Amino acid sequence: MKEKRISELLMALCFAGFLSLILVTTVLLAQIKTAYYENRSLAGIPELTAESVLNGAFFDGFDQALADHCAGRTTMLKAKTAMDLAVNVKLLRCPVVNEVVVKDDLLLPFIEYETVCPSLLSEQAMLLADNVASVRDATESYGGRYFFVAVPCQYVSFQEEYPFYLNNRAEFTEVTKTALLESLAARQVDVVDMGPVLASPEIRDQAASRVDNHYTMYGAYLTYLEIMQAINGTRETPLTVLKEGDFDMTELPNHYMGSRTRKLIDLSSVKEQVSILSPAEPVRFRRYNYGSEVEPSVYAMPATEYDVVDYGIYMGGDIAETLIDTQRDELPSILVYGDSFTNAVECVLYYGFNQMRSLDFRYYTEMSLGEYIETWQPDYVVCIRDYEQLANPTFNGSGAEFQP
Fold first, then answer.
1. What whole-number distance in Å separates Cα of residue 261 and Cα of residue 241?
2. Which of 34, 266, 282, 329 counts the most CB atoms within 10 A of its CB?
3. Dist. CA 81–CA 73, nearest whole Å
4. In the beta sheet, which residues pair with residue 147?
5. Contact between residue 291 and residue 265 where contact means Cβ atoms under 8 Å apart
6. Which of 349, 332, 356, 340 is nearest to 389 (CA)?
7. CB–CB of 116/175 below 8 Å?
8. In terms of DSSP H, where are the helices of 47-117?
9. Do 341 and 149 contact (CB within 8 A), yes or no?
10. What is the dihedral of CA 130, 135, 222, 390, to 10 degrees?
11. Would you say 193 and 174 are in contact if contact means Cβ atoms under 8 Å apart?
12. How many CA atoms lie within 13 Å of 247's alpha carbon, on the beta-carbon side?
């Protein structure tokens, strides 16, 4: 009997020790702020106060933190994803795993079903067009020129690839794009619409990523060409444009972790390589992030061919403010703003300008867009937005971001 009690006590102590180890490990892991594969911020341990205990907020927050930082979470997610890919996709022919539509050669975002309200989208488009026109007016007040660039995101490029029973957002895309472009045209804003340029299957298959929300470097290059054509259309002396033969497009051997690949915990069989564009005659420049000088490069190159790369290879990812100074005072300056869709274009856009500034208003808070334009007075201001965000005034240089 005594031996049995000792055995039970040891078992209880081992179990308690195991739970304590998991708890301690989870608390230590709570220092990690983001989930790489899930591409989201993780919940932190909430502040312990009398009020948070009494209203239950502390316990709710602590439960979420434990769930987010549970030891072995990534391993469990990987195991579940592997099972879902094997059972749901291969066996049951249900293509949605971790909010990704899995096809043999393509990974698309799962889009919740929605009711499209044309009148509401039209109203939003007119408000956004008013804001964009205000940015245009601020740019032209000192003699600058403004261009609004609309680019299709991945689900737009491949909308016909969705199974018929899933939402491909075709109606939302068409209503939004038509409403905004018509509103901008009514306000005489210069627009570059990349949709028709990238529409043919031959170009689309090279320009749109199969594993990521963005375009490929080739798609970014085509966008650059259209921007430069629009700018040169306003000039007596055209700026230098990199044409075929003026650069090398190099495909890196590294494994490319697209945003869809990441959501599938890198278990998908759909692969894609990332490319970089290098001018045959390089232009020397100095680069500044947030006003501090950094390495003069437009690519965050991997150390070895075995390192994993993602879309952050372009410009080093989402930087709130970047200045590239080529120190060629005879050339004009340009400001490009938007979100991550500007990054790959920036890697080549700087080539024809004295200075290129870029802003990402998801992170930049030093000045409003109006103040920034008034301070630096760039010769050209370019906004790049993907179709998904055309009806979204946030971070388009409107509201808090734009104060004339």
1. 34
2. 266
3. 12
4. 382
5. no
6. 340
7. yes
8. 50-54, 57-69, 73-84
9. no
10. -30
11. no
12. 20
147 close to 378: Cβ distance less than 8 angstroms: no
Report d(CA 243, CA 254) in Å as an integer.
26
The pair of structure tokens assigned to 253 is 């051997």
CB pairs under 8 A, 24+ apart, for 223-229? 223/149, 223/151, 223/192, 223/194, 223/345, 223/384, 224/345, 224/348, 224/349, 226/149, 226/192, 226/194, 226/197, 227/147, 227/149, 227/192, 227/345, 227/349, 227/382, 228/352
pLDDT means over runs of 10, the chain (404 residues)? 59 55 52 54 61 61 56 76 88 91 96 93 92 95 97 97 96 96 96 96 96 97 98 96 95 96 93 96 96 96 95 95 97 96 98 97 90 96 94 57 44
Nearest to 326 by CA among 308, 349, 306, 299: 349
Is residue 109 helix, strand or coil?
Answer: strand
Query: What SS3 class is residue 280?
Result: coil
Q: What is the DSSP letter of 329?
A: T
Q: How far apart are CA 242 and CA 279, in angstroms?
A: 7
